[in-house]
Structures
1.
Amino acid sequence: MKIGTVIGAVWATRKAECLGGQTFLVVDTGRDDLVAADRVGAGVGDRVLLATGTVASRYCMDAPIDAAVVAILDGKQDS
Amino acid sequence: MKIGTVIGAVWATRKAECLGGQTFLVVDTGRDDLVAADRVGAGVGDRVLLATGTVASRYCMDAPIDAAVVAILDGKQDS
Amino acid sequence: MKIGTVIGAVWATRKAECLGGQTFLVVDTGRDDLVAADRVGAGVGDRVLLATGTVASRYCMDAPIDAAVVAILDGKQDS
Amino acid sequence: MKIGTVIGAVWATRKAECLGGQTFLVVDTGRDDLVAADRVGAGVGDRVLLATGTVASRYCMDAPIDAAVVAILDGKQDS
Amino acid sequence: MKIGTVIGAVWATRKAECLGGQTFLVVDTGRDDLVAADRVGAGVGDRVLLATGTVASRYCMDAPIDAAVVAILDGKQDS
């Protein structure tokens, strides 16, 4: 998984029907900004763990989503 | 998901049979131009959300497609 | 999907059994050269659309293939 | 698979329920730092092999995880 | 698929149980070194074709593997 920081959110009126009710956060991963579905309750400034690919879709009831916030980090212990 | 801007479209007469009837948009993601199937009705200049991988194929009736426009963005709230 | 240009082909005598009968083209995607199975009949110089990942395998009868030519482009309309 | 070196770990109190009980290591792959679930017992300084994508999720009981440590390397024989 | 050159091998005593009996080669793809399971019998110096992702796992009896050597190249015909 990638670690990133939540920097905002996006909204869409016109979208795939099955995306209704999902919250989409913009996450800065250091390299790219990704948009991820959030079901953990993350907010701007939170450091989060992202799961990507089919795994994210399965976690979001098989919606056409390829990135999801799966955890909000408490801390990181470096060597 | 990636955010991108629709910059055009592509057409193909010779293609996998199961691709018939799909619309393919060229989307500038800032890093690469990707071609994505569109089922939301996006047009040139729209800022869109792309889902990639198997997820996109499943959204497009299991066609051999690895990117799809799943939403047209209203706005983006940065921190 | 990625757009690329066919620049050649590769052959392999020693390979996974289930790859027999597949044609493999080398496609220049601007960033990397990828090898893709071709079932559309593309040739050197053709601009093609590539599907990658599990999607490509499914399109090629579940062979251990992660890229496939799914269309030969007629033209591209830029904004 | 990618080779990387374990450089730390991360913790999360707020997370997807199905992530409970998983250990998450930070792995330096030379290019990016990735977070991977560990079920092999790796520690800081170990050189490990990472499997990514749906494969990693399946290895971790279908949890929303896209990277897993699948081996701790003994040695590497270069040409 | 990616083309690469086999430059060595890796060994692991501590690993996922289901990886027993697999051979892991280090393959230089020009950009990154990847570790791939080999079931074709490639050796150092061979130019090989790599399949990545879930496709590779399926080819290796669903082991937690995300890259596999699927062919040893005879030659490459450029345009």
2.
Amino acid sequence: MKLSARNMLKGTVVDVVKGATTAHVRLDIGGATITASITNEAVDELGLKAGQKAAAVIKSSDVIIAVD
Amino acid sequence: MKLSARNMLKGTVVDVVKGATTAHVRLDIGGATITASITNEAVDELGLKAGQKAAAVIKSSDVIIAVD
Amino acid sequence: MKLSARNMLKGTVVDVVKGATTAHVRLDIGGATITASITNEAVDELGLKAGQKAAAVIKSSDVIIAVD
Amino acid sequence: MKLSARNMLKGTVVDVVKGATTAHVRLDIGGATITASITNEAVDELGLKAGQKAAAVIKSSDVIIAVD
Amino acid sequence: MKLSARNMLKGTVVDVVKGATTAHVRLDIGGATITASITNEAVDELGLKAGQKAAAVIKSSDVIIAVD
Amino acid sequence: MKLSARNMLKGTVVDVVKGATTAHVRLDIGGATITASITNEAVDELGLKAGQKAAAVIKSSDVIIAVD
């Protein structure tokens, strides 16, 4: 499967914290950590757990640029 | 200024392509490139150009997780 | 590849309109049409054209519910 | 009221699961199911419950295209 | 029509700038100006023009909080 | 720090409601209230509490226009 989303950052799952409906997944992408808010159902379906290889997919229209 | 957005990836602007209203900015974050779609006005106001230090700010609710 | 995004609507590309930097892709998902705004680069990389099978991927946090 | 959002998918609420602050609403749009993550307050204000007619509203900039 | 989106800011259209595919609409909400990036098709369909009453609809998951 | 996001609405925090993982923060921007869904971690890191000065940052691609 190929995606139109321009950004795919590969990494390793650091931890998964499930809430009542929403989970937070942190990904070590080498030099930085990415946090994703996803559904608990997605965590279960993808079997996400610490140590697993995964990627962060981000649409370019969701990226803000910041400068000092 | 501090932001609630969980993800701030620091890097260097690779290039800036302005369209009619929407610009694409690519950022080298070291090992990966991030593309952002922002307004031409933002490019002008921030004075974005190749070689400049900048960061990509991404809200965690905009991050999708992918696994093979 | 499996995605955390909860919504994947399969269909056929109706048309692709490229702008200066941003393209609009319409997808017939059977009974409804989905419009996506994506980068011209994504259109080229995926080789999107009318008649092609494709899917619309949408994160559940990007869905608003409306009632009459 | 008319909206600039290009995508409005009409359907019927399948179920509503409220969490601590965030609810998941599933909509049967005929041939596919859409999941929306919305606030508990929105669920209460709209009186969302299974069997109710509703629509999923999605901005085109939030749609990713996938191809095999 | 009622929406799950928590934020609806009423105002008056200041100006509409159409690009090749994407338009920028500015709304005076009284004390502040909101910029929206929407499709040219939406501008046409809603007949948006300066002086018109309109509202900005924003999902709460798309709002970032900033503090000094 | 300067941001590419076109919309920054200054106000005062009305209340903060933390859930299991996701918090809702309401901001009085003078004449209107903005609700933001952010992570509990962001609430803690920014020390958000009622009465505090804060701003809502919103990317223009996340704004929908509505007309009657």
